[in-house]
Amino acid sequence: MAQQPGNSRLKVTVRIDANLQTARIEVRGSVTRDNLRALYVVARRTSAMLPGREIILDLTQARAAVEAIVELHDPDQLLRVIGADDSKEPCRLRVLDPVTG
Fold first, then answer.
1. Listed residue (40, 22, 18) closest to 31, CA to CA
2. Of 19, 100, 22, 26, nearest to 65 (Cα)?
3. How far apart are CA 85 and CA 28, in angstroms?
4. Which tens digits make up the pLDDT trace of 34-49?
5. Which of 3, 6, 77, 88 measures 20 to 30 Å from 31, CA to CA?
6. Which CATH number does 10-96 carry?
7. Is 6 left (phi over 0), alpha (psi -120 to 50) or beta?
8. How much is the pTM?
9. Model confidence over 48-92: pLDDT tens digits?
10. What is the DSSP letter of 4?
11. For the sheet containing 22-31, what is the strand order?
């Protein structure tokens, strides 16, 4: 799925479309289990701004440890990230995996 990352530094850009219907969280760098929590924080804050809207976690320009990708696709973990346990309407989170090559 993805190669093992070397450096665990991330660069994150959040882009919200003009109609406030979707947000794209673009990630560059190396995603590890250790820094995955930072991505969850960004996703949760973005979903607080856009409740019920689609949020795309775009890792296509990033490298990621296999364990991090597995955790990102864990339904129980995603429910906590998207706010399904909150009183607000949960967002729809879509993960675009890193490109392998």
1. 40
2. 100
3. 29
4. 998 899 889 888 988 8
5. 88
6. 3.30.750.24
7. alpha
8. 0.81
9. 888 888 999 999 999 999 999 999 888 777 666 655 555 566 668
10. P
11. 10-16, 22-31, 54-64, 92-96
